[in-house]
Amino acid sequence: MDAAKLKFKPMDLLIPTAALVVAVVILVLNFTREQPSEKWAEVRIGGQTVAVLPLDENTEAVYEAGGGHNHVTVQDGKVLVSAADCSTQVCVRSRAISRVGESIVCAPHGLVVTVVGERTETVPDLIVR
Ligand SMILES: [Zn+2]
Prior knowledge:
Elements: H1 2-34, E1 39-45, E2 48-54, E3 59-65, E4 68-75, E5 78-84, H2 90-93, E6 103-106, E7 111-117
Antiparallel strand pairs: 1-2, 1-7, 3-4, 4-5, 6-7
Residues 84, 86, 88, 90-91, 106, 108-109 line the site of zinc ion (ZN).
């Protein structure tokens, strides 16, 4: 009788413990793979950082760059150039970015928006042509 009880108890604990371990592992994997806890959109004009916008706050800002304007919008954890008066409109057509290391480049204005986060060191300077 005692032996049976002893066998029972560890088994009862094993399942919730295992479930917990699995849950924690999934959480940690998602966390490290998907998103660092803090991410920012770094706005640079002519190689100089002019703004660092947290991606978890919806914001809109207009930057004067290269004789024109770039409208940068942060929405739902992503950043995009929503409007610009540059000649190519490549930056406006670029998709919203949210992953560390991704960039939107407005070559005519020399403006670069890069997602930075705790996983990366300072992103090496991009050469914009
Ligand atoms: Zn542009």
